[in-house]
Design a protein that fits this description.
Blueprint: H1 3-15, E1 20-22, H2 24-37, E2 41-47, H3 56-70, E3 73-79, H4 81-84, H5 101-115, E4 124-128, H6 130-133, H7 138-146, H8 150-153, H9 157-164, H10 171-187, E5 191-195, H11 199-211, E6 219-223, H12 249-257, H13 261-271, H14 276-288, H15 293-309, H16 313-326, E7 336-339, E8 343-344, H17 345-351, H18 358-366, E9 370-372, E10 375-376, E11 383-384, E12 387-393, E13 397-403
Parallel strand pairs: 2-3, 2-5, 3-4, 5-6, 7-13
Antiparallel strand pairs: 1-6, 8-11, 9-10, 9-12, 12-13
Helix pairs in contact: 1-2, 10-11, 12-15, 12-16, 13-15, 15-16, 17-18
The structure holds one RNA strand of 83 nucleotides.
Length: 404
RNA sequence: GGUGAGUUACUCAAGCGGCCAAAGAGGGCAGACUGUAAAUCUGCUGGUUUAUACCUUCGAAGGUUCGAAUCCUUCACUCACCA
């Protein structure tokens, strides 16, 4: 294959799913140089260690980084260790609590560990921005500030809006994009990737690299923000609409299957490793009725489960799913609770953590959502006698109870 | 700094002395129908071993009253207009 062909293939894969690329020519050049001379380049992406677990929303970026690694990129996995300990850059709309150093440290541990399920560790450099940001002298900091103007900062949508509405903008908020951009100066990144909501900050890196005469300006690739399970809001832990990369396999499978058909295509595009052509084919098949959307969704779910739980696990999760939900069987793996003899059904539901309160248990019972050994129970005074039972609330929650 | 308006459950938002655990909408949970999809329909949506009972809740603390989310005082925060 010629260098041109290699480059074109790589570029196409890199572009996939991206929302916008700034300075695509630069990326093309880096790829070409890689194929000509074997010279690698750096790709930076920043992560906030505000939570210990990654979800699929994060992996959209990680997968893109992995793609770069396939084509000569060396990843600069930047942990916002400095910014995370300071506070809230996006104003009161999203009051973020300030994390202690220990918390941040713990988060970073599990965070990176999870990230390496996708990234190639040999081509990844984990860097922490407190290493250089903490060392900035006031003079250096002011020099950094002097590189930009207030007018420029107000170009950022978020700031623009708030300024127009005469809402407060804390002065330190202005410094966040600058600090983030400064990371690119220190790291001399060739490319930075991030979510589309980060556009302003990503571009800041470019501008600061110029201002500091780094000798290059990073290309920028923006990925869309992945919607959560509700299909509307972005995937986030606080909204509870996420699929965590550490989610148990069967649960992960189920969550994927619960997304709407519309959202499924979005997940295909951003999470699957199927080619875009193949996806278009699937879509066509579904549109024509020759393919059942649920089968397509199951394939996606399997793929995702395999990625995080290993080969074979996707198929297993699928089989289990079909056993339980299509054929209405009891799951093979059940959490087991030991309960006292002659316990009331209401109390039992709470003790097994199927419901949060006795009242909720009564409501569910009344609604006909509770089953014991596949038999519906509606009498709230029902007493469970000695034995082993399967207790079920709703379609999805099963528990095994052992009553002494 | 001055003046005025506001702060209600997960969110928005009614309530302006007892009938308020607090309307309505959204969200969520559950049931029916399905494919753990969408759409639709229905029920539920503070807690307490279900009680025409008690407890906690309407920014915070005090007060008036038989009785307060509702009235008064102080404090905190938010918003608007003026300087």
């Amino acid at each position: 294959m010629s260098i041109e062909t290699h480059t074109a293939i790589a570029l196409a894969e890199i572009e996939r799913g991206s929302l916008e690329i700034i300075d695509k020519e630069a990326i093309e050049k880096l790829l070409k140089t890689y194929y000509q001379e074997g010279k690698t380049y750096t790709v930076k992406a920043g992560f906030d260690p505000t939570a210990p677990d990654l979800h699929l929303g994060h992996t959209v970026l990680l997968q893109k980084l992995a793609t770069f690694q396939k084509f000569g990129g060396h990843v600069q996995f930047l942990i916002g260790s400095f910014t995370a300990t300071i506070g809230d850059p996006t104003g009161k709309s999203e009051t973020r609590k300030v994390l202690s150093k220990e918390e941040v440290h713990r988060n970073i541990e599990s965070y990176t560990q999870q990230a390496f399920k996708i990234l190639d560790p040999d081509k990844t450099q984990v860097v922490y921005n407190h290493e250089w940001l903490e060392k900035l002298t006031p003079m250096e900091f002011l020099q950094l500030l002097s590189k930009r103007t207030v007018a420029r900062m107000l170009e950022r949508d978020d700031f623009k809006k708030r300024y127009k509405n005469e809402e407060d903008i804390a002065i330190h908020e202005f410094t966040y994009p600058l600090l983030q951009g400064y990371d690119s100066v220190v790291l001399k990144s060739d490319i930075e990737i991030g979510g589309s909501d980060q556009k302003f900050n990503l571009l800041m890196g470019r501008q600061l690299q110029k201002a500091y005469e780094v000798g290059k300006q990073q290309a920028v690739l923006m990925m869309p923000i992945l919607e959560g399970l509700d299909g509307v809001q972005k995937m986030s832990k606080s909204l509870g609409n996420y699929i965590g990369v550490t989610d148990e396999a069967n649960n992960m499978f189920g969550k994927v299957l619960s997304v709407s058909d519309d959202l499924m295509w979005r997940y295909y595009e951003l999470l699957s490793s199927e080619s875009l052509d193949a996806i278009a084919g699937l879509k066509k098949g579904v549109g024509e009725g020759s393919l059942h959307p649920m089968d397509i969704k199951k394939a996606l779910a399997s793929e995702i489960v395999e990625r995080f739980h290993g080969e074979g696990e996707g198929r297993k999760a699928k089989e289990e799913f079909e056993r339980v939900f299509s054929h209405k069987n009891i799951p093979t793996q059940l959490k087991e609770y030991k309960l006292e003899a002659n316990i009331g059904i209401i109390k039992a539901l709470v003790d097994c953590e199927l419901v949060p309160s006795l009242n909720q248990a009564r409501r569910d019972l009344k609604a006909g959502a509770v089953k014991m050994d596949q038999e519906k129970v509606t009498d709230e005074h029902f007493i469970i006698t000695q034995g082993e039972y399967i207790l079920q609330k709703g379609k999805k929650s099963f528990v095994k109870i052992v009553v002494k």
